[in-house]
Amino acid sequence: MTQDFSSLRKMLCYLFDTHERARLLAKDTGLDAAGIAFSPILDVYWDNILMEAMKHGRLRMLLEKVSDEFPNYRDKLTLKPLLEETDRPLASGAATTHTEPPTWSTSTPSPLYDIFISYSHMEESWVHSWLVPKLEAAELRVCTDRTSFDAGVPSLVNIERAVATSRHTALILTNNWVESQWTNYEALLTQTSDPTNLLRRTIPILRKPCAPPPRIAMLTYVDLRESLHDPARIEAEFHKLVDATNDVRRLPDVMPTDRTLSSAWEQQKEPIAHRVLRLIARYTTCSRQRILTELQVSEDELQETLSELLEADYIRGTVAVTNGSFIITRAGRERVRGYSTV
């Protein structure tokens, strides 16, 4: 059973390879996409979607929709034993017939909150009268000690749970925050799970001039100083915070990764037509200049390749031209799925 679920998750990550495509499929299946715990790790996000589908008896519908879009995978999406056990919602308090429930790929709790606020209590009034209401108005799930900590539980445990169940932790930087052992403990817990901050789990917010430790000072902060009185500037800075919490990146990542470096030789060997088709599939709509820039091919090579894509029998119908840009068709997406992953 566990193997079936693991294989299913891997296949869904392959077929629906972005968070947005996964979210749209969940929505089309009748699930409340807003109620599915988000994770920046796609495997974990798919786990959460599958759990919701099982809970509401919609796993069969989800697999049918996948089969409709990718008919070549229909035979691999039956999972009959799994469907027989999970095809109906569980009654409240009812015992399940599972002798061994599926295991999920994450050892930490699924995120319940988008952001946990770490602050000195000298800033409590501003946090709860201004910051939290604006974050909630932006449809973000906010965790604070006042609203989310459980009574009768040790403070250290509450803090650990708040950090573990929040996708991000916002640090309200002031001298009082820097000098507090409690707030530094909160920051350390967050940074331990994301030491280089590649996932941006730590989001510093400068509220008052201070000297945070180097591990925090190296991060770009959101400027919401109390001395800032320009409404437009304050709003712009707040939107930076919202974008960071929603994992929106304003600048593309241009640094080479291990994956791109290790696949450089494979990309050189791969036919240009395949590389062009894959690039168009990534962006859905792609200009000639973007293809030239990203694939570093000559104009002559590109023209020959585009002629092949538009005219050759074996790949005819995979690409179309609209308003001078190239778009991928469904047939093109199916063909891209058959290429080796790079």
Output the number of helix runs: 18
Biggest sheet architecture: 5 strands, parallel
Number of separate strands:
8
Supply the helix-strand structural class: alpha/beta
Q: Please compute the radius of gyration using only Cα atoms.
A: 24 Å
Strand order of the largest sheet: 2-1-3-4-5
User: What does the average pLDDT come to?
Assistant: 75
Overall shape: globular
SSE sequence, one letter per element: HHHHHEHEHHEHHEHEHHHHEHHEEH
Instruction: State the distance separating the first and last CA atoms.
Output: 30 Å
Low-confidence stretches: 79-109, 256-269, 338-342
Estimated helix fraction: 40-55%
Structural summary, described in words:
By secondary structure, the protein is of the alpha/beta class. The protein has 18 helices and 8 strands. It has helices spanning 2-15, 19-28, 42-55, 59-69, 80-86, 124-137, 145-148, 155-164, 175-179, 181-193, 214-217, 231-245, 258-262, 264-269, 272-283, 288-295, 299-311, 330-337, and strands spanning 113-118, 142-143, 166-173, 202-206, 222-223, 285-286, 319-322, 325-328. A 5-stranded parallel β-sheet has the order 2-1-3-4-5, sandwiched between helices. Strands 6-8-7 form a 3-stranded antiparallel β-sheet. Strand 1, helix 6 (124-137) and strand 2 form a beta-alpha-beta unit. The longest helix has 15 residues, at 231-245. The chain is globular. The chain starts with a helix and ends in a 5-residue tail after the last helix. 25% of the residues are buried. Residues 79-109, 256-269 and 338-342 have low confidence and may be disordered.
